[in-house]
Specification:
Layout lengths: L13 H24 L6 H8 L4 H7 L2 H24 L5 H16 L3 H10 L5 H14 L1 H13 L8 H15 L1 H5 L4 H20 L1
Length: 209
Amino acid sequence: MKTKNRRRPSGPTLKQKQSAKTKAALIAAAKSLFAEFGYRNVSVTDIARAAGVSHSMINVHFNSKAGLLYQIIHESNEAQAAEATELAEDDGTVLKRLERIVRSFAMHDLADPELFAVMQAYFWSWPAETEMENRQQLAVALAPVRRVLEEGIASGEIPEGLDIDRAVRALFAIYTMGLRPAVYDNASTVDCIAEIMAQVTMLLRTARR
């Protein structure tokens, strides 16, 4: 008598569940330790001990301590993107709307300049899969900027010939470089925002010509 093939139950395997549990424990431990002692004063051994796992699990799941920090920041960036989307819907000129978005981003990124600097350094050495993940999240985060520019073209504030893709990339480059004085020159967030917007204003005025 033939027996019917039994289907394997769907859903995550035991190994996948354990992996997710380990990652969650490491993230929770890192958040707590970073908040209490600062990023540079916490070792991978400290994090692993607090999470109850081997320190090698940090490399397995996050590539490095910086990769673990990236994951923590990555999770918080979703709320930041949602806030920027709301700000893009507010009334005002293109520059005023962009300034509100820039201020929101800067207040978030410069809440801890040291961590911002760590992420900027890690930006050039993270794995290819992290780069792809970051590009996807960045596209979502910059969607409000794109929307403001597109509506600026529709209203006549910005010329129709503006290359939106290049403009968004240029604005992001201006923003990223504009935060560096907070890390290296002890500049205030307000000063950084002012300089960023001065350069954004110059860029958009040039585009009108």
